[in-house]
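FAQ: What does a multi-protein file look like?

Like this. Sequence, then tokens, then the next protein.
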Amino acid sequence: MRLFPLTLLACSLPLAALAVIPAPAQDVHVRVDPTVKTGIEGSTAFPTIQNALDHHPLAGVRPDGTPGRVYIEIVPGIYHERVIITQNHPDITLLGLGQSPSDTVISNSLNAKQAGGTFFTETAEINGDHFEADNLTFENTAGETGQAVAAAVRADRAVFKHVRFLGHQDTLFADYGRQYYVDSYIEGGVDFIFGNAAAVFDRTEIHPVGPGYLTAQSRTSPAQATGYVILNSHVTNGIDPANPKNTFALGRPWRPYSRVVYIHTDLPANVAPTGWNNWGKTANETTAYYAESNDTGPGADPSGRVAWSHQLTPAQAAAFLPANFLAGADHWNPEADAAKLP
């Protein structure tokens, strides 16, 4: 019945029947557990995550007039499925119920050659605004076989807290909207954080497992308020430091106006001394905006950085803090939203 508006129901139901139709709950909590055998519309327990997304009860409106949220609470386990959250499905929260993010894993294995292109490989496709995820893992296990996306995020005001993203090439497609990642973990080899979102990665571990590039941000115009900010984070080394070829750059421009800023982030010795790469096009050096501010660690030495990158003062870096960089016209406070999660 969820597809029919109340006005249509009113045409076919007597007034007495309408009087007993319950109002939807303000927030909805449903459970995902592989032992569940139902999964029909209106249930509150489902065997798969996608089943829960497709058939959960509708949320209502909170007393303050804001939309209710659907909390999908997932028991620990490995869920071998692809998850798609459509654009017309906002206000979804995925919550792993384990002790750590590694206890609840959404897993698939698909690379670009198998799927017919990079943008068909993602284990999770997230398009609904105001999405949240907490205490779980998105992974693509295709390995070193080319582009293989663990999560594609095209949602505004998205929050990821205590979330792991595992893959190799193109692990996280952070492509659209404002996104906030906090206390999380991202692993990959080549261009493994890419796209054109306005995204802040706060207190996050970025773990390269091979030589390559950490980011490939794709801003196409200086007028776009997009870019990546790696803040208060750690880049950790997953490759053999003894081989001088085993270095990685902080980023390269997938599109000419690529923008990436590292602030108060610890960088290991395997960071290439130049820091940044122009992707073989000298013209990108006049359009891309790559900057650092108060980074630490053996890979943070600014003396060898490319001349077209920037070292920011704390005052200049303030524009890229979450409260400023992600605020937008609606004055979004991503840190406050993240604090509400467990």
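And here is the next protein:
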Amino acid sequence: MRATPALVVAAALALSACGSSNDNTSSSSTPSASTTAAQSCDKANLSLYKSGQLTVATDKPAYPPYFEDNKPENGKGFESAVAYAIAKKLGFAPTEVKWVVEPFNSSYAPGPKKFDFDVNQISINPARSKRVDFSAPYFTAPQAVVAPKGSDAASVTSLSDLASKKIGVQIGTTSLDAVNETVKPSQQPQVYNDSNDVVQALKQKRIDAVVVDLPTAFYITAAQVPGSKIVGQFAAPGGDNWGALLGKGSKLTPCVTKAVNELKADGTLDALQKKWLGAAAGAPELS
């Protein structure tokens, strides 16, 4: 178990109390931990796959709304934009970012990596974290509502409007929890054993709408249910977290995490999510 910050501070104080009162070492002569951390994340000090460039990986083809025109290097699409925002925090100009192809399933396999970090809708989970590193999450998947175009459910603009509809959802998912705890439907949701059953029920119009995570909603409307649309999205606890993936023990991991945390704190990640995964992408927010 990792020591908490409070325990670390307490230990440091205990050690200093044991020192000699004649110790003349000036505290100003030793860099602080925060200064050392900042220096280690200076561009010149970064441990990179190839010197002088930041090598970023994703799969091919690269799909919207995460990438546009199958060109990660154009900076368009949510994950392309996030990668360039991280690169900027690390001190790299767009021309210093090199994109490479890494298939999704091989990205989290153990072993050396031919990239600095990978962005590819990769959920952080314990099994993967044993084999690779992840940065702090740059995205937590919200829930989304999908309904047939032209239906009554397709015109809802709020969660209260949705509550009166017959909603389909997969058993054992965070989406089921979100329906019960956030939407609070007036009738019990229709619960299905797997995602295929949910999709078939929507196709056959045995339900008015389905609730799934937003990435799944994009896939359903693009590939599984022609004539369907994302009615909207809403925040709910328990969504999948996506992180930048790095090789296990990468010296770059703390710096990428630092960059992601700064992008979260200054509102950049929220702005990019709204731009690429929000109303403009056909997924307005429901409240």
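Q: Is there any per-entry metadata?
A: Some entries carry free-text notes. For the entry above: The chain has two domains: 43-141+240-281, 143-234.
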